[in-house]
User: Fold Sarcosine oxidase subunit beta from Nonomuraea composti.
Amino acid sequence: MTHPDFLWRNPDPRPAYDVVIVGGGGHGLATAYYLARNHGITNVAVLERGWLAGGNMARNTTIIRSNYLWDESAAIYEHSLKLWEGLSAELDYDLRFSQRGVLNLAHNLGDVREGRRRVNANRLNGVDAEWLDPDEVKKFCPIINTSGRARYPVMGATLQRRGGIAKHDHVAWALARKADAYGVDLIQGCEVTGFEILKNRVIAVQTSRGRIAAGKVALAAAGHTSVLAAQAGIRLPLQSHPLQALVSELLEPVLDCVVMSNAVHVYVSQAHKGELVMGAGIDAYNSYGQRGNVHVIEAQMAAALELFPIFSRVRVLRTWAGIVDVSPDASPIIGRTPVDGLYINAGWGTGGFKATPGSGWVYADTIAHGRPHPLAEPFALERFTTGALIDEHGAAAVAH
Ligand SMILES: Cc1cc2nc3c(=O)[nH]c(=O)nc-3n(C[C@H](O)[C@H](O)[C@H](O)COP(=O)(O)OP(=O)(O)OC[C@H]3O[C@@H](n4cnc5c(N)ncnc54)[C@H](O)[C@@H]3O)c2cc1C
Assistant:
């Protein structure tokens, strides 16, 4: 039983489980939760080499939206957004989920065409979407500089009113608490170092805390997935990059929506506590260090000031980075691998926080039934050999 003062137990690993999940970030925890809740599979361990949510889960800028261009993406992210809408009640935990609206700004005619096309595509897919002209943008978010003399003038924006933010550490704690209550073992300080594979079937993982036998093994290790998969002889089309973010000192309420601009490359919201939360683009090189370079932050600040001159005297409080796993078409990989019993959920890159419940839902279903969930089917690893890519690079999904 969980001690009333703690949200979850801290068990030692048992010698064997039906399912071993590698990675205790949001996706690993959500997968464990839905395996138990939806499929009654509770003989499950989540193995985390550090501490729960010490990876990207508690480093992201928490933007949640579902206004992706392609049908396959809209379907899985909208499934996730619908789950978010009931998640605080379901997990009995205030996730600070706030549907305050997400603006994606357009700064040139190409952006305008892309934005309008995406609004139409979203509506056809039942995703709420609006196109705002510059005056409407100013009305919705008065502190944005919409002057025609700006270096990157605001020429309009897409708006998803159901988009917003949530508090990422609360999400991790809430999922962990529920998974634990179902009997899932959450094992921290336990690094997976290799796999035992017999006749092309995974039968166990080797860990820093010994061998653990497993009926099925599910990777949910974000930026470290390609390193792990290589231990099982699988070469993945993933590149790991640092992605930086920062927060300002605490301010009075000044920004009550989320503003994203791919062209100037900055993403801003104001957290419940009062700090401005800003994300940048990826650092261009590959790395596994959870830190990035200052020139990226400098460019991000210049972009933020271009859009919000009102922030010119605000001080930066803290910067950090996470390691994101970027796939060639900027879409995730969910499903089976060439090794029987070994499953993959990766490639969410700079935008997987919003997918946390949806990803956990379809991954758990895929693992439970040994075949892809219908929403996961288009995101199979095979698409990189068949060529059936879901290219979100040029569209809305570039970041966050
Ligand atoms: C700065 C930044 C801003 C972002 N902003 C947004 C945003 O606004 N909106 C959005 O939707 N997404 C955003 N993202 C992306 C999002 O955070 C990720 O896509 C998502 O968190 C990945 O899934 P996860 O939570 O399971 O990953 P993680 O939390 O990284 O979980 C993976 C876990 O696996 C563990 N692990 C790795 N190797 C091993 C091993 N060998 N053995 C055991 N455990 C291992 C790691 O320690 C880690 O805890 C952002 C990311 C960053 C870094």
In short: Residues 71-91 form the longest helix (21 residues).
